Fold DNA-(Apurinic or apyrimidinic site) lyase, DNA-formamidopyrimidine glycosylase.
Amino acid sequence: MKYLVDTYRSAVRDTDTDEWPFECSKLFIELDNGLELSFNATRQSAKVRLLENPATVAPISELGPDAFLEPMTIDELFDALSKKKVAIKTLLLDQSFISGIGDWIADEVLYQAKIHPLQAAASIPKEACAALHMSLKEVIEHSVEVDAVSSHFPVEWLIHYRWCKKPGKINGMTIEFINAGGRTTAYVPELQKLTGDQAVKAAVKPPKKSRNKNIDEAESESEEIAKPKGGWKTTQSGAKKLPAKRKLDTSDDDDTSDDYGDLNLSDDNVEVEASHPPGRDKSKKKPSNSSSSGEDYTEHLSKLNEHIVAFKKIQQEMLELKRESSKIREERKRLFKKN
């Protein structure tokens, strides 16, 4: 007797007009009673193998006990967990440990057993192991009973909230998402807490810095303005100003935008007007020790004006193209109506 290995889907032809078998069909079987089966692999990565004894060939031979047909006892489960140091969510997804547990079932049983997904399997106490054993039994048996139709699951189950993968609430408690075992994992921090050494490490672990430095430094910047080298100097009116010996660095375009003035990008005027820093009397010009900085400043303004003019020219050309396109469309409509 030969067996077909790997899962396949069955379908019955509804009408003669449907494409059958599908273009992506890997296996097509026609039975004596007229039933036709087609194994469809839309991703073109599935395989079908014909074997004498599938149970002796990987990956079937490497599967652990079936979670539904061959459930472990509490003692067997506790003994098996005590030998594994990986996170419990990762272990439950390992089909060589227990076969038949997928992503949502793992999240569900851990939620009902009140076990954190990242809790090391070997650190789970006997009481928590018993709760996990019970939730495994109840969730899997009920899922099989209703053919895994989620609408038939109890309303208090986590599965009804986890698919959106956005923070929400279940029974008034917040649902959060983390990565466990390479999978997006839903859990309820208020119920599922790390225990033992992991709880201590989590408590003293500093918060992760954001990738955006602006966010990390926002609070400190809002409370204290960075002082320049040499410190602030105070005028008679009490206002702060930079030290007299420190020259204003205009080499960084991003930090000296105010020194280059206000840009007027209207259609009538694309010139750049240099504005004076606030608090400085325009009538009193401080003599410059060097003309090089002034020349660089003027050259920069000149180049900037050239870029703005070029940009405006491109805008005008795009507008003309748009108008021409509209004329062509109108002409096509006119000819279509005429014909």
